[in-house]
Specification:
The structure is a homotetramer.
Chain A: E1 4-10, H1 13-28, E2 32-39, H2 50-56, E3 63-65, H3 74-95, E4 99-103, H4 109-118, E5 123-126, H5 134-146, E6 149-152, H6 155-163, E7 171-173, H7 177-187, H8 195-199, E8 213-216, H9 227-239, E9 245-248, H10 256-270, E10 275-278, H11 283-291, E11 295-298, H12 301-304, H13 306-310, E12 314-317, E13 330-333, H14 337-350, H15 364-374
Parallel strand pairs in A: 1-2, 1-4, 2-3, 4-5, 5-6, 6-7, 8-9, 8-11, 9-10, 11-12, 12-13
Chain lengths: 385, 385, 385, 385
C-alpha cells in the first residue's frame, strides 16, 4: 500500500505549537507521509520566526509560501488571503497530497481550506467546533463546512460540529495537540534556562524566583481602533504589582500596529523598570516559564488551553476567548485596569489550581495521526438534515 | 437618515437571473442605495455576456472585476477565487458599502464572502440553506457561516440555516427572486420573438409550433473527467425524439471544456438536423421559451426552480441538483441515454404540471429589499449552541 | 561538469514556432539541460493550444503557468502580466535554472524578463534588436535592457542591440529559429495533407490547386478601437478575388474581440462561399500551406520572416510590422481595401520571389544552443557609454 | 482647456524626497491636476512611513496601493512587483490619468512603468540615464525604454538617454528635484531641532556640537549574502572615531534582513556608547543634519546627489553608486573597515567642499511641471536607429 500523503499547512507560530505533536506522529507513522507547508507569518522574523523552530525540530519543509501583504489592516488581511489561496493552489498542484490539514481559525487558514476544497482534495480540520469572539468565529465554522474530516479537542466541540450538519462518522475527539507538549513539560516543569540570556528581548532582566506575570495580548480584529486603548488597560493593570512583567509581542494581524504602538508609547512615557518584552520562545521554554508564573494575563488561547492542563492561574481579558470552554484556572474580566488587577490579586490569594483534562490527556498527536491513516477520505458531503 | 449602501456582487449570468428583481427593488427603495459590482464570467462574452443584459436593464455598474484566470481546470478555479478576493478587497475599500450581498453557491462567491467578512462589512447571503451535490454544497454552507443575514427561498432552507447555528432573528424566508421573473412571464407566456432570428446561434432553424426540447447541462466539478461522457448520454438521448432540440452552452467551470468538446464532436459526427445551439438569452425570453417547451432536460437549477412555478416538465439528470427541493414537474434520472429518453416520453404522456409555489410567490425582490432596509446589520455572530 | 540548466518560457503559439529548433538543439546538447515552461495562451485551447503541439514534438514540460486573466482588454493585459510575474517567481525558485530564455516581444514576456532579473538569474533574449510598431516596440527593448545575453536574428539587429549600450561580447547573430523550420519545409515543400480534413475549421472546403490566399491579421494593441474596422478592410479586399481564402484566427490580445467580431459579422452578412476559418496548424503544415499560396495577406511576422526565406509573396498591412527588416517578397499597404487588393494583383503578375537569407540560413537552433553552452553567464551589467 | 491629469506613483521614502518639489509644482500649476498614488514601502511604518510626511506636506492622496509581500528576499521582490502591477492597473483604470510619472530605478517602479505602458498611457521617467551597480541599472534603462518622456538630472544623463535610441525631442534636462530641497536648506542650514528628542530612535543621545558621522547603508540586492558582512565593515570602521554615529535603517529590499541583523548583533556585542539608530526624518531635517555633519558614510545616493550641492564630505562604500556621476565631495572605497576609516580621516583633514551644481540648481520642480504641461504626450515610439 502507498503511504497517504498528508499535507499540513502551518501559517503562524501559535498554530505550530498547536499541531507540533501531531506533525511528529504523522512523520513517524508507517502509513503516512508528511508534507509540511510553512506559510504566512510563520516564515517571518518579526512574527516569531516559527520556521526556525520548525527546522530546529528536524522537520523537512516541502514548500514555503510567502503570502503576507504588508500593511496590517483589514484590506491587506483580505488580500493576503487571496494571495495565499492563489499560491497554495500551485503548491497543492505540485505536491498532490491525499489530504490537507488546516489548523484552527486564523484568517489565513481560509486560503488553505478553499484551495484544498476547490482542488477536490479531502480537507481535514483540527480544532473545529469551538466558540470564540470576532472574525475567528466566522472562519472556524466556515472551515468546518468546507472540511471532510474533523479532529476536535473536546466532547462539546464534537457535539457542535455534528450539529453543524456534519456526518457523525467524520467527527473524532482527539484532544488538542498543544496539551501533548504541556503534558511533557508538566512531567519536568523546572525552568532549565535563563529567559533573558537565551531570548534577549528589550528591557531589564529580573529576578523570577518570587513570582512574575506573563502577558500576551492580541488585537481583536473587529475592534480595530480599540486595540491601542485596550492594551493600555492591561499595561497599567500589571505595572504596579511589584512583580516582574514578561510581555510577549502579538501576532501579525490587522490592528497589531495599534497594540504595538500602545506598548511603545507606554514604555517611553512610564519607563517601567519591571517590564521585559520578548518576541517569542521555543514552545517548551514558554510553557516552563508559565509553570512557575504567578499568572498569565491577556487574551491568548494558551491561557485557556495549555494552562488548564498545567494549572496556571489565568486572567482572560475581553471578548477574544469568549465562548471557549474553560477550566478552573481562568478568571474572566473586561478591558478595565482595575478589574484586571483585582483578578490577579484573587489568583495570588487562591494559589495554583489543579490539572484539568478538558482539552486533552497528552495523546492528541498520535490519535490525529491514527485518524489520518485510517479514516475514509472523501470530498463529497451533504448536510445531515 | 442616510440611505444604506447595499453592494451586490454578480458573478455569472444565472446568478443575475436569480437576483434581478431584488436589484430592481433595492435600486428603487427609498432607504437603499444600490452598488452593483459585476465580476467574473458575468463580464465575459463567451459565458453569456451578462453585463450586456444588466446594462440593457438600465442598471448603473459601480465596478467591474475581472477575475477569471483562463484554463478551466481546478487549479484555475482556486486561483480565480484568490484573484477575485484580492480585487474585491480593493473594490469594497473604495465603495464602502453598509452591507454586501452574495448570491447562492458558485465557487467564486467565496471571494465576495471572504472579502466582506475580513473587512468587517455585514454579509448577506441570498439562497442559503439549500442542499445539492458537488462543491456548491461546501461553498453554500461555508458562505452561510460567514454571513450575518440570511434571505432564503423556502421554509425548509430557513430551518436548515437555523440548525446551522444561525440566529433565528437573522433568517428570513423571502422566496427566490428568480420566481419573480417567472411570475411576470407566466402572466403573459406567449413567445413574442423568433429565437433563431433574435439570438442566432449555430445549427438550422426549426418549427417550434409542435413542441421542442430545451437542454442545459453543466459539467459537475467533482466529476471532472466524466463531463464529456455525461454530455454524450444526453446528446444521444434527445437526438432521435423527432423534436427540435434547443441546446444552451454551459457556464464557465472546471470541466466545461469536456462538455463543450462532447457537443462539438457529436455535431461533427452526427450532423444532427434538429439541433440548434444557443449561447444565452435575455431571462424573460428564456422563460417564455420554456413555457411552451415539451420539456427541459439537463441539470440546470432553472428546471427545478422557475419551472416548478411555470409548470414546465423537467428531466433532471445526475447529481448536480441532488438534495434540492423539487416540485411535481421533475423526473430524476441518471446519466443514461435510455433513462433520459424514457423520462421525456413519460412527461409527454402526462402533459403540463400545475404551478407550484415551493420557491416563491413572485414577490421575493421587494421582500429582500425590505429586509435589507430594516434588518439589524452587525458583524459579530456566534453559534447558537 | 554539471549541465547548464536552461529554462525557456514559451507563452504563445507563434513564439513556439520561433524557438522550436532551438528547443530541440538545447534538449540534445550534451552540456545543457532544457527546462521548458509553458505559460499564458500557449496553454489555452482557444488560442491554438500550443501545448498540444509541444507535447506532440516530444518535449517534457517542466511547469505550466496559467496567467491569462480573461477580458481581452488593456487592464487584463497588465494584470495578466502581473499574475505571470508572481507565478514565474515561484517556478524559477523551484527549478533553479542557470539561465532563463525569453522570446521576442509579446507583452507577457515582460513577466519572464522581470522575474528572472529580480531573482538574479542571467536572462537571455532571443530576437531582440528588431523594430516594429505598437507596444511590442517598448517591450522588446525593455527586455533587452533587462537581459544579459542577446541572440539576435540579423546583423542590423545586433548593431542596434550594441547601440542600446549592451556589451558587444554579449551579442550574437544566430539567425531566427523560425527559418530553421522554413528551411526544412523548403527542402520538401509539397503539401502532403488536406487542410480541411486535418484541421476542420469553419466554412466550406475549397480546391487549392489553382492558388489561394492565406490571411492572418492580429489586432494592434495601441489602436484598440480600430481593430474591427481594420479587419473589415482586409475581409472585403480578399473577398472578390476569385480565390479561396484561408483565414487564421488571431492571438489572445487586447482587441482580439474587435477583430473576431468583425470576422463574425462579415461572415453572417456576406455568407462568403470562398472563406474558410482555421484556428491553427502544426508549424510545418502551415509553412507548406504557405509555400503553395498565391500570397499571404495581413500583418503577421511570418509574412516577413519565414516567407522571405520561402519566397512567398506577402501583402503586409498597417503598422504592426513597421520598422521590421524585410526581403523582396513584401509589399506594404495601409488598411485600405483597394490598396490591399492592388498589392495582391501586383504579386500575381510578378510571380514567386527568390529565397532571401536575411533572417537566417536554417541553422539558428544549433547556434543558439552553442551560445547557451559556452557564453559567460552573468547578472551584472552596465551601459557601455 | 482641461487640465492634464498627472499621476505620480511614489513607492518609497527616498523616492519622495527625490520628487517632492516637483509634486508641489505640479499641484500648483494652472494647467495640471496632480493624482498622487502612494504605494509599496512608502505606506509602511517600518520603512519610514513616507505617507505621514506626505500628508504633513499637505498633499491629497488619490490612492494607496499595498503591494509589499513580506519576506525580504528575491522571490518576494519579484512577487511584490507582480502584485503592484496588478493593483496599479486597477488604479490607473479608475483615475484615468493623461500621463504617469515614475521615479528613478527601485525594483517596484517597474510595476508602474509596465502598468502605464500596457494601458496605453504616456509614461514619464524622472532621473533616467544614470549609471550605477546592481539590479537598479537594469530597471532604470528598461523603464527608459518603456517611457515616452524623459526628465533627467544631468547633461550626461540626457546624452545617455538619447544614445539609448530615444527621440531627442522627448529628453529634457531638468535637474534633480532633490536638489531643490537641498537649495532651500542651504539657504538656512542651521539645525533648529534636537534629533534625539524629535525622532527618538534607539541608543544614547550625544553632543553634536563637535562633529558627528551620519551612516546610511543599504543592502545591494545582487550580493544578497554579503549584506551582513558588508555592514560589519562599516560598523567597525566608524566605531572608534571618537565621534557620535547617527545610523539610519535601510529601505525594504531583499537583504535588508542581513543588514539589520548585522547591526543588531554588533550592538549587542559591542554595546557602543556613541551609536544612535534612527528610522527616518523629515527630508529637510535630514539635510540640515547632513549640513553640519563631519561626513556621510555608506552607499546612499543622498551622499552623491544632495551632498554635492550641500558640500558635505562623503565616503561612498562599495558598488551601489558605481557609475553615478559625482562631485568633489565624494571619496570612494571598498567594503573594508580600514579604507573606510582612512577616507573619513582624509575628509576631516580637507574640510568642507564647495557647492557643486552637477545635479541641479534648485529649480527642477518647476521645470518638471512645465515640461509635463507643455510636452507632446504620445504612446508610440520607435528606436531612432
Amino acid at each position: 500500500m502507498n503511504k497517504r500523503k498528508i499535507c499540513v499547512v502551518v501559517t503562524a507560530r501559535p498554530s505550530y505549537s498547536r499541531i507540533r505533536s501531531a506533525l511528529l506522529a504523522i512523520r513517524d507513522h508507517p502509513d503516512l507521509e508528511l508534507q509540511l507547508v510553512v506559510a504566512a507569518s510563520a516564515l517571518l522574523d518579526r512574527y516569531g520566526n516559527a520556521i526556525q523552530v520548525i527546522e530546529r525540530d528536524g522537520f523537512d519543509i516541502a514548500e514555503r509560501v510567502y503570502m503576507v501583504l504588508e500593511g496590517e489592516n483589514l484590506v491587506t488581511s483580505a488580500k493576503s488571503t487571496g494571495i495565499g489561496l492563489s499560491e497554495l493552489a500551485t503548491v497543492l498542484d505540485n505536491i498532490e497530497p491525499d489530504a490537507v490539514v488546516t489548523i484552527a481559525d486564523r484568517y489565513e487558514t481560509m486560503a488553505t481550506a478553499v484551495a484544498a476544497s476547490y482542488m477536490n482534495i479531502p480537507l481535514v480540520h483540527v480544532q473545529g467546533g469551538e466558540v470564540t469572539g470576532s472574525i475567528d468565529e466566522k472562519v472556524r465554522h466556515a472551515v468546518t463546512k468546507l472540511s471532510n474530516l474533523h479532529l476536535v479537542s473536546t466532547k462539546l466541540a464534537a457535539e457542535r460540529v455534528r450539529r453543524l450538519g456534519e456526518d457523525p462518522g467524520a467527527v473524532h475527539v482527539t484532544g488538542c495537540p498543544s496539551i501533548d507538549i504541556a503534558a511533557e513539560v508538566a512531567a519536568s516543569p523546572r525552568m532549565d534556562f535563563d529567559p533573558f540570556v537565551k531570548y534577549g528581548g528589550v528591557g531589564p532582566s529580573a529576578d523570577l524566583a518570587h513570582g512574575y506575570l506573563v502577558v500576551m495580548q492580541h488585537p481583536v480584529t473587529t475592534e480595530y481602533e480599540l486595540a491601542r486603548q485596550q492594551v493600555e488597560e492591561t499595561l497599567y493593570a500589571v505595572k504596579d504589582f511589584g512583580l516582574p512583567v514578561l510581555w510577549f509581542w502579538p501576532n501579525v494581524d490587522a490592528g497589531s500596529d495599534g497594540t504595538s504602538k500602545g506598548i511603545r508609547v507606554f514604555r517611553e512615557k512610564e519607563q517601567p523598570a519591571n517590564f521585559h518584552l520578548f518576541r517569542n520562545m521555543f514552545p517548551e521554554d514558554f510553557l516552563r516559564l508559565l509553570c512557575s508564573a504567578t499568572a498569565i494575563v491577556g487574551n491568548s488561547s494558551v491561557a485557556i488551553r495549555e494552562c488548564s492542563y498545567l494549572g496556571v492561574p489565568a486572567v482572560n481579558i475581553g471578548s477574544r476567548q469568549q465562548g471557549r470552554e474553560r477550566g478552573k484556572n481562568v478568571i474572566d474580566v473586561d478591558h478595565d485596569r482595575r478589574d484586571i488587577a483585582d483578578a490577579i490579586a484573587t489568583h495570588i490569594k487562591r494559589g495554583k489550581p489543579s490539572c484539568d483534562l478538558l482539552y486533552g490527556d497528552g495523546k492528541a498527536g498520535t490519535r490525529i495521526a491514527d485518524c489520518l491513516a485510517t479514516a475514509g477520505l472523501t470530498i463529497e458531503k451533504r448536510l445531515t438534515y
